[in-house]
């Protein structure tokens, strides 16, 4: 590590969670120059960056979560057979879809980094509700697809955004419990691929989420990187 990491306030998260939240950034201030007290410090670090991890430990940071970042090429997805029976064709989310999903999203992300002891369950659920509302209005994520059963009930959903000419990043992928194991998530990903082909798909998931890791591996997603989240709560 050539120099200590720099931190800057995350304006969106700070406003949303009503408290100062700082994250590692390329431009910012070193720890000693940040305001004293009353803030949450977050650091996402490559698992291989031992020097920065050692520094964070020495400054009172604690490991909170890890995530794994995957990608799959358009060519590999094109070779996978798709579509499942007993579901309506996948379409863009409607306003009524979003209304039916509010207060029914956060519990799908128990492994989220927005979790205790730094965030309460209510804050987590509110965050994911806001994510789907923003995706519907094309803020941050620009595409929001839903899969419905034959009665029209939302079975699962996916949000995504194009980050370059060659890459599309999946934001959220969720399937409600009674529809899990029926091919809904696979169908959502392959439909997203149809829309953005020949772009590659990228996605991150928490290390603890072994079901998601196994699912992506079966679709030939390859590991790009492993990252650790370290937090320090100066509010207490």
Write the layout of secondary structure elements.
Elements: E1 6-9, H1 11-17, E2 21-25, E3 40-46, H2 50-58, E4 62-72, H3 74-78, E5 91-92, H4 95-101, H5 121-136, E6 143-148, E7 154-162, E8 167-175, H6 184-196, E9 200-206, H7 210-218, E10 222-233
Parallel strand pairs: 2-3, 8-9
Antiparallel strand pairs: 1-2, 3-10, 4-9, 4-10, 5-6, 6-7, 7-8
Structure summary, number of beta strands: 10
Strand order of the biggest β-sheet: 1-2-3-10-4-9-8-7-6-5
**SS field, number of helical segments:** 7
Mean pLDDT: 93
Spell out the helices and strands N to C: EHEEHEHEHHEEEHEHE
- Contiguous low-pLDDT stretches (5 residues minimum) are none
Report the biggest beta sheet as strand number plus sense, adding barrel if it closes.
10 strands, mixed
* Distance separating the two termini: 29 Å
Gyration radius over CA: 19 Å
Secondary-structure content class: alpha+beta
Instruction: Provide the helix percentage.
Output: 25-40%
> Tell me, what's the shape?
globular
Q: Provide the β-strand percentage band.
A: 25-35%
Domain N-acetyltransferase: 88-236
InterPro entries: Acyl_CoA_acyltransferase (IPR016181), GNAT_dom (IPR000182)
Protein name: GNAT family N-acetyltransferase
């Amino acid at each position: 590590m050539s120099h200590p990491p720099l931190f800057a306030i995350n304006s969106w998260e700070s406003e949303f969670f009503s408290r100062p939240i700082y994250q590692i950034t390329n431009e910012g201030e070193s720890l000693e120059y940040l305001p004293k007290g009353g803030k949450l410090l977050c650091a996402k670090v490559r698992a291989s960056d031992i020097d920065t991890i050692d520094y964070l430990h020495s400054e009172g940071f604690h490991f909170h979560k890890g995530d794994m970042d995957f990608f799959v090429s358009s060519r590999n997805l094109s070779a996978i057979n798709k579509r499942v029976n007993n579901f309506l064709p996948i379409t863009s989310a409607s306003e009524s879809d979003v209304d039916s999903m509010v207060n029914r999203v956060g519990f799908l992300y128990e492994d989220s980094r927005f979790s205790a002891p730094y965030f309460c369950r209510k804050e987590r659920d509110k965050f994911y509700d806001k994510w789907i509302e923003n995706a519907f209005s094309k803020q941050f994520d620009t595409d929001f697809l839903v899969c419905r059963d034959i009665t029209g009930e939302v079975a699962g959903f996916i949000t995504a955004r194009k980050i370059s000419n060659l890459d599309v990043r999946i934001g959220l992928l969720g399937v409600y419990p009674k529809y899990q194991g029926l091919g809904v998530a696979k169908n959502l990903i392959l439909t997203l691929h149809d829309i953005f082909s020949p772009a590659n798909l990228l996605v991150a998931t928490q290390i603890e989420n072994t079901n998601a890791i196994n699912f992506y591996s079966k679709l030939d997603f390859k590991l790009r990187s492993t990252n650790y989240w370290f937090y320090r709560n100066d509010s207490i």
